[in-house]
Design a protein that fits this description.
The protein is α/β, with parallel strands linked by helices. The protein has 15 helices and 23 strands. Strands 1, 2, 8, 9, 10, 11, 18, 20 and 21 form a 9-stranded mixed β-sheet that branches. A 5-stranded mixed β-sheet has the order 19-17-12-22-23, covered by helices on one side. Strands 13-16-15-14 form a 4-stranded antiparallel β-sheet, with helices on one face.
């Protein structure tokens, strides 16, 4: 291969244009040349959909030790205390950094406004009305556009990581009608989670588990994939997306009600603000008992003025769908919301493949354990992106500067129809919801696992899949007109199948219930299972210890 050109060589490639990817770009050393890739062509990353806020200790009546204890308690024994300590202690500095970057948090009498969310012992959730994620991404995007040495490309789908001699040195991408390679000294995965694997979810379709699937295929360890958080209050109307109704409305007084006007969460410590996994299970059971598809959330106790001021996005969306939360309760039900598991990383955001890093929901840092504390997710993006500030990438690998070794255009007469691929994706989403949703059973998981394994391995025999996976670095595959969108669907189906197989394997392996993982055939938590689950290609599944505690409690 030749010496390469600057177009195909980058110090760092960041994959994902949400909060984690944007913050990573801003925190990487300023002298580095950075390429930011996102497969979407517009703004709808999962970060933008985040409503509630960002958790940080900013009030005199709060403390680092309290935030740590709340996080550890929510995590049901699987949080790594050192990761929690890092998050909590760096959170106030990240808030200050956001303010300097132009983030417009709500304020009361000149001070940062805070609200209360489930399982928090203090009001520590900062917000920008009920569109905190959107406001955050807007502020970060403005700064990213000004960063010297950065190029952003939208509509580019990452296909597989480029690993040579045990080191990640780039990525294979589908860009327009070309499949080619981009070399880099380091790659940062910031692709988000895989919540759209489930039929009912608050996540956009882009959340298809790409980063976890690519990392696992490349040989990286993934961790705790059985732990999925189901948000208890997604708007549930036939034919409408499962729009998230922020937990913050319950923090301000909204009440959950069943068909008969009774509370489905009376038996829980914390009631309407009990941990999300407990509330979701309580709602799912009451729905099953009453034979209904949803329960109700009454926002009227919050008061019309506060609702209009603090939750305009929620009110606006409800009104668009013909609902009036100021006059009557709205229909809600649990939906997949956040993946606690992901690509295993250390406190520096590094995976176990040199040159490969992961930040945000795609990563498993040990912060969230078995169940994420509300509003810790956006802060996790910021804190662990900061750890990239000292990153020193290796020299990029050399690829053919002119990419002369073009192969194509490819002719795949047997390429599946898009309607077939979309049908298979829809069927997989229904399967995941039925066997690995809010409540699971070993029999269902055991029956579904070989099914998705057969489908994944069968897809890997397809000529199109084999041609893409076997492409040599430095070559270009050119697609015929109309093939790009079909190949995107084929690739996305494969990513989803990989993630489903990993999920079913982990959920079947963990024969207990803990946090976001609940087995009706093993409903109790067991001391033996206070361990992480680890999966690695060709190595099967194993358990790993929870990290050690940090002794210095600290105070703001």
């Amino acid at each position: 291969m030749g010496n390469g050109s600057r177009e195909h060589h980058w110090d760092v490639i960041v994959i994902g244009g949400g909060a984690a990817g944007l913050m990573a770009c801003l925190e990487l050393p300023a002298q580095l040349r950075v390429l930011l890739l996102s497969k979407d062509t517009g703004p709808p990353s999962a970060s933008r959909w985040a409503q509630g806020g960002i958790a940080a200790v900013t009030r005199a009546d709060d403390s680092f030790s309290s935030h740590e204890q709340d996080t550890l308690a929510a995590g049901a024994g699987l949080c790594d205390p050192a990761a929690v300590h890092l998050l909590v202690h760096q959170a106030p500095d990240c808030v200050q950094r956001l303010l300097e970057l132009g983030m417009a948090f709500d304020k009361d009498d000149g001070r940062l406004s805070t609200t209360l969310e489930a399982a928090h012992s203090h009001r520590r959730v900062l917000h920008a009305q009920d569109r905190t994620g959107g406001a955050l991404v807007d502020a970060l995007e403005r700064q990213v556009r000004r960063r010297p040495g950065l190029e952003q490309r939208r509509g580019v789908m990452a296909l597989q990581l480029w690993v040579e001699q045990g080191r990640c040195c780039g990525v294979q991408v589908l860009e327009g009608n070309r499949i080619h390679w981009l070399a880099a000294g380091a790659v940062v995965l910031a692709t988000g989670g895989g919540g759209h694997l489930f039929a009912h979810t608050t996540n956009p379709a882009l959340s298809s588990g790409d980063g976890v699937a690519m990392a696992w295929q490349a040989g990286a360890s993934v961790r705790d994939l059985e732990f999925v958080q189901f948000h208890p209050t997604a708007l549930m109307l036939p034919g409408a997306p499962h729009f998230l109704i922020s937990e913050a409305v319950r923090g301000e007084g909204a009440q959950l009600l069943d068909r008969d006007g009774r509370s489905p969460v009376d038996g829980l410590v914390g009631g309407n603000l009990a941990p999300r996994d407990q509330v979701s299970r309580a709602l799912a059971r009451r729905m099953r008992e009453q034979g209904v598809e949803h329960l109700w959330l009454d926002l009227r106790p919050v008061g019309p003025q506060r609702l209009e001021r603090q939750f305009p996005t929620i009110l606006g969306r409800c009104r668009e769908l013909g609902l009036n939360p100021l006059q009557q309760p709205i229909p809600v039900a649990p939906a997949a919301h956040y993946w606690m598991g992901g690509v295993s990383t250390d406190l520096g955001a590094a995976t176990d493949i040199p040159g490969l890093y992961a930040v945000g929901e795609v990563a498993c840092t040990g912060v969230h354990g078995a169940n994420r504390l509300a509003s810790n997710s956006l802060m996790e993006c910021l804190v662990f992106a900061r750890q990239l500030g000292q990153l020193q990438p290796a020299p990029p690998a050399a690829v053919d500067a002119e990419e002369k070794r073009t192969e194509g255009p490819l002719r795949w007469p047997e390429l599946p129809q898009q309607s077939e691929l979309m049908g298979r994706i829809s069927a997989l989403r229904s399967l995941c919801w039925s066997v690995a949703g809010v409540e699971r059973h070993g029999h269902g998981l055991a029956a579904a696992l070989p099914q998705v394994h057969r489908e994944r391995t069968g897809l890997e025999e397809h000529p199109a899949w084999r041609a893409v996976q076997g492409q040599h670095p430095g070559t270009v595959l050119t697609l015929e007109p109309g093939q790009e969108s079909t190949l995107r669907l084929l690739q996305e189906l494969h990513h989803r199948l990989v993630l489903a197989e990993l999920l079913f394997t982990a959920a079947l392996f963990r024969e207990e219930s803990r946090g976001g993982h609940f087995r009706t055939d093993a409903p109790a938590s067991q001391p033996y299972w206070r361990r992480h689950t680890l999966q690695r290609q060709h190595h099967g599944i194993a358990t790993g210890p929870v990290g050690e505690a940090v002794e210095e409690p600290g105070h703001p």
